[in-house]
Amino acid sequence: MLRSWLADFLGLVFPRLCPACREPLARGEAHLCTACRAELPYTDFHRLPPDANPLSRRFWGKLPVRHAFSYLQFVRQGRVQRLLHGLKYGGQRGVGTALGRLYGAELAAAGLAADFDLIVPVPLHPRKLARRGFNQAEVFAEGLAVGLALPWAPALRRTAHTATQTKKNRAQRWDNVATVFEAVDAPAIAGRRILLVDDVLTTGATLEACGAALLAAGARGISIATIACA
């Protein structure tokens, strides 16, 4: 009783806010409020056949991918942008894990877990990792691993620090990342169907470069999942 009263008091003085809408979270709500859970712009791309999936088409002729999924549709100044900003720059790593668990459970319910052997996040350069404190793609991978009941591993590394991809066009993004990824443990990758994950899919240049590195290490196939797509 005392613990419950104290939690209510602290909630009034220091309310926990939903990172998507900035409204106070109610008791029992974790990371996202119930309204945002219901109203976020979900893509449902995992329900489409690959040839009808607009994300899969982005990789045609560039990277052979079996599946390409994004959980949410990115909208500027919207809830998804606030979610991602809190995750990347606000230290809200629990948001990434929670989104991964939710999406992983949806993919599993759609029968897709059997299409993957290993989840691999896009890596950060150690300099950026030290500054941010965690890799947002890794925390998403952790959540996906729970939802899909699959292992995940930081099987790639970034060999060079590159300038931010923001405000670059597609050609510039590719030039920026084309040769900066390599496999950490090729035997762990060889022969496995990889689900490569990141926070946002824009042009796909970073994911293409990571996918190429995984295929060079002997991966049997590549699929892609991100929190959001632009």
UniProtKB/TrEMBL annotation:
Q: Which family does this protein fall into?
A: Belongs to the ComF/GntX family.
Specify the species: Hymenobacter caeli
Question: What Pfam families does the record tag this protein with?
Answer: DZR_2, Pribosyltran
Q: Which domain of life is it from?
A: Bacteria
Q: Which residues form the Double zinc ribbon domain?
A: 10-42
User: Can you name this protein?
Assistant: ComF family protein
The residues covered by the Phosphoribosyltransferase domain are 139-227
Record InterPro entries:
ComF/GntX_DNA_util-trans, DZR_2, PRTase-like, PRTase_dom
